[in-house]
Amino acid sequence: MRKVASLALVLLVFSSGLVGCLQSSEIATSEPIPEPLPENEPVPEPEPEPLDRNLDHDGDGFTTGWELDNGWDPEDALSAPPCNRFRELCLRGVNETVWATSHNSHASLDRNHNIISSSQRTNITAQMNGGVRVINLDVHEYNNQTMLCHGGYDYIAHPCFLSGNWPLEDAFLEIVSFLENNSFAVLIITLESYVTAQDIANASDATHLTPYFHAQELGAIWPSLASLIESGERVILFSQDRPEIDIPWYHYDGDYMAKTHWAYNDTAYFNCELTRGNISSSLRWLDHYVTDPISSESTSNVTNQVPLVVERANNCTQQWGQIANFIAVDFWGQGDIVLAVDTLNGF
What we know:
Elements: H1 2-29, H2 64-69, E1 99-102, H3 124-129, E2 134-142, E3 145-148, H4 159-163, E4 166-167, H5 168-181, E5 187-193, H6 197-206, H7 225-231, E6 235-239, E7 250-252, H8 253-256, E8 257-260, E9 274-277, E10 283-287, H9 297-303, H10 306-320, E11 326-329, H11 337-344
Parallel strand pairs: 1-2, 1-11, 2-5, 5-6, 6-7, 8-10, 10-11
Antiparallel strand pairs: 2-3, 3-4, 8-9
Helix pairs in contact: 10-11
C-alpha cells in the first residue's frame, strides 16, 4: 500500500513538472510585445526661395538687393525712407514731378548781393532745407575766378562788380554738404553760364560734386527718383549754353526742356507761351516772378501765394498737355512755393 502511495506521489510531481515545462515553452515561443508607435511629427516647411535682388518686391521703387544692403525690409513698402520728402515720388520720373525752383538762387541778401541785384533773401542751404530742389545759378568769370553774380554784360560795368559775387565752388560745397546729410534728396542745378563747361567741371571736381551727376541720354525715358537715389547719381545739371567739350552730365537745356518768357512786369501778363527750348521735349519750365523793374519781396509775397501758383500751373498743364515741372520764383520764402508744389504733386 505504501508503495502504491509513493508511486502516486512520484507521478504527481512528475506531471506537475511537465506542465510547468509546457507553460514555460509557451511563454518562450509567444510573440514579443510591440513597442508603442511614436506620435506623428510635423513635416518641416520647405525653405522659401530667396528673393530676386534685381526685382522690386514691395513696389516702392527700390530693388530688393539695394533694400537688403541698406537694412530695409524688401517686402514692406513703408520700410525705405521717402524721396524728396514723399514716398509717392520715389516711383515718379523726373518729368512726372513738379519741382520747387528758386530763381537766381545764389543772388541772396545774405550772400553778398545788394538790394538791387538780389532775388532771394536766404542762402542756398536754407533754400534746400526749406524744400527747394532746383538751384538756379548765374556763373561768370571775374578776377580770373569762376564766380556767381547777377546780371548780363549790357551793364556799364562787370555784373560781378555791380551785384556782389561769391565763388561757384562755395555753392557746390553747400550742395555736396546737403546731399551728404540728405541721402534721399534729388536735386537739379540749372546754369546761366558765361564760362566754359570745363570751368564748371573743374569746380565740380574740386568740390567732389561730380560723382553725384546723372548723365541723361537725349530722348531716353527719364529715370525715377528712386533709381537716381539707388544709383547715387542724385543731381542733374542743365545749362543755357552748349558745352564746348563732351561732358555726359552737362546737358544743354535747349534740348531737354521748353521754357516760358523769363520776366514779366505784372501778374496780369502771366501766360503759358513757350518762348525758349525744345517744345517736343518732356520737361517744362515755368518762370513765375515779376521784375518791375527789379525783384522784390513784397511782389513775391503776392505771386508766390499757393492759389495763384496752382491756378497758373494747372492752366499751363491744360494748354501744354503735360505738367509744369520747374516753377521758378523769386524770394521763395514769401508766400509758399513749396506747399504749392506739394499740392501740384498731389499731396
